[in-house]
Amino acid sequence: MSSTHPDRRTFAIISHPDAGKTTLTEKLLVAGGAIHMAGEVKARGAARRARSDWMKIEQQRGISVTSSVMTFEHAGLVFNLLDTPGHEDFSEDTYRTLTAVDSAVMVIDAAKGIEPQTLKLFEVCRLRSVPILTFVNKVDREGLPPFELLDEVADRLALDVCPMNWPAGMGGTFEGIYDLVDPALMLPDKADASRMYAGERLPVAGLDDPALAAKLSPGALAHLKEETELASACYAPFDVAAYRNGDLTPVYFGSALKEFGVEDLLNALAAHAPGPQPQPAEPAPVDPDDAAVTGFVFKVQANMNPAHRDRIAFMRLCSGKFERGMRLTQGGTGKAIAISRPMLFLAQDRDMAEEAWPGDIIGIPNHGTLRVGDTLSERSDVTITGLPNFAPEILRRVALVDPTKTKQLRKALDDMAEEGIIQVFYPEIGANMIVGVVGQLQLDVLISRLEAEYKVEAKLEASPWDTARWIASDDPVALKAFQADHRGAAATDRDGAPVFMAKDAWEVGYVTQRHPAIRFTATKERR
Ligand code: GDP
């Protein structure tokens, strides 16, 4: 990319609830200087306009967009941190956010190791070989031994691990963190020892430097030497190519709460994390160096206020220099859309508030014309691919309490499908719509929004199916025959693509084996 703008680091944090994602996010924002006092309006001119537009939208329409993308600058780079919702349950939203990042930070609780949600999110990252930096959090508390944590990451995620620093003790015995790459000891703040917050960073010549002996207790130092020696024999040396390829994860021990290791993590993102990557697309991948502006919508957020139908589409810019007012073509429809009020999340720098570069996220207010997966481009011949729909794990039949509200129900389900909250299937037989979700929480959201926003009272009933697969075949006759033979389980999704609904994964396997001409896919790429 041209050298007229700082490079981007667009990333997300993946973790299990309570591991410390929120705390780490806050500390990264503070370290990057992005947290301002509430109500502070420093910017002038265009930037002030941009910012106040955006605040007005938030206030009037109740759309909370600020936390979805957080932008800050550090080490001459622009960081875009994309929030992945921190619920116990997922929505496809969470998955799709991960298609808009170039790298991820995986936060693990030192006392718990890899937890179920960490694993699920990791698997999504692996699908696209997203490079991962690991942050083992809460070393200020009792945790599992570092070796056990490292081996768990290596074994369960099948990744090479490379410790970049090492805790001198944990919990009650915690005395600091030793930087293995750029030898130094990070010590608690002496002035406020009771709080144990990170204070001094003491550069040393190595583990035999007498300065260490002066700062650490003899037991802690001996233990640190022993462990780090063993670690250097056990684990692969850091290899930036292997990291960027998604084969190796550098591991940082730290404490988000006590601010140990946060700065190191940020520096690692700056030094090692990849900038904007080429995006899979038809007819050819979109390179960040391409001159034409191209991006894709990875998330649509509706209004919290039922009186409005506005929504914000979040577009990840993949190539070109975006400027306010630009007209972009919506892939599929061929319609040109003027992006006259883009929300750029670069509120700090007024020069940049009018433009955006590959890796940046642009919020586009609209009334439902933009959908998740849409390509927006100055070109008319490009379609970003690789934004999957995921096979639902729960299917429910939607039954109206008041049957005269069919139209409203359909509109509501379409809206929510567009936001990626649910999927809607229209069965071949019968008039009831089927909704599919990946997690239970999505069903709760569905019911409460139906009532509050759309004034539709509906019940979710058990359906004979629990999962669904998109079906396709190179042989249209075979596909037709399959659909005819399985009419009771045949449906279409809201794009009209054929779907086979199944009782469970076992049935999917059984049917798949018996129909080799048909492809059953658990993800459907939006084209
Ligand atoms: P999230 O659910 O992943 O966003 O986790 P939070 O950031 O909300 O943290 C969950 C809990 O862990 C909160 O009570 C935090 O104060 C606490 N916590 C986060 N980081 C640390 C840490 O480094 N040390 C300790 N002792 N507690 C932490």
TrEMBL record:
It comes from Sphingopyxis indica. Keywords: Cytoplasm, GTP-binding, Nucleotide-binding, Protein biosynthesis. GO terms for cellular component: cytosol. Its main location: cytoplasm. GTP binds at residues 15-22, 83-87, 137-140. The gene is prfC. Increases the formation of ribosomal termination complexes and stimulates activities of RF-1 and RF-2. It binds guanine nucleotides and has strong preference for UGA stop codons. It may interact directly with the ribosome. The stimulation of RF-1 and RF-2 is significantly reduced by GTP and GDP, but not by GMP. Belongs to the TRAFAC class translation factor GTPase superfamily. Classic translation factor GTPase family. PrfC subfamily. This is Peptide chain release factor 3.
